[in-house]
Design a protein that fits this description.
Elements (H helix, E strand, L loop, with lengths): L2 H36 L6 H7 L6 H32 L5 H35 L6
């Protein structure tokens, strides 16, 4: 791997990390606002369950939404692996197409790994958030 390609990859990785951090901070900041607007003192779990399709817990509702998006991203990654495989098979010896297909497959595998780590992290954090400890 050349030095220029390494610098470019590092730069792209830092950009993705920075954007992820900014999005996490935005969602964290909006989380308090959203929960304050969605749930008021007069709400009871039974009325919330009726409005959300049977879920009375805000934590479980958030977990279901996050799981849906992670499932969607995993599906896109699998589709990209299939696309990369088709590109690889139809390259017909063209080295540029073969390299492109290998990159697509590699990035899709990295995407699947990130989705799996995100799934585990979200489940751990949200399940732990409902079980506060007394100090």
């Amino acid at each position: 791997m050349t030095k220029t390609a390494l610098k470019k990859g590092l730069k792209q990785g830092l950009i993705v990390l920075g954007l992820s951090t900014v999005l996490l901070l935005i969602f964290t900041a909006l989380g308090g606002v959203a929960s304050a607007q969605l749930i008021s003192e007069g709400d009871v779990p039974s009325s919330i369950a009726g409005a959300t399709g049977g879920e009375g817990s805000f934590r479980v509702l958030i977990l279901n939404v996050v799981n849906f998006f992670l499932l969607f991203l995993g599906l896109i990654a699998v589709i990209m692996i299939i696309y990369g495989g088709v590109t690889y098979v139809t390259a017909a010896g063209n080295q540029e197409s073969i390299d492109k297909a290998k990159k697509i497959i590699m990035y899709a595998i990295v995407g699947i790994i990130i989705v799996l780590i995100s799934f585990a992290l979200v489940r751990t954090v949200i399940s732990g958030a409902g079980q506060g400890t007394e100090v």
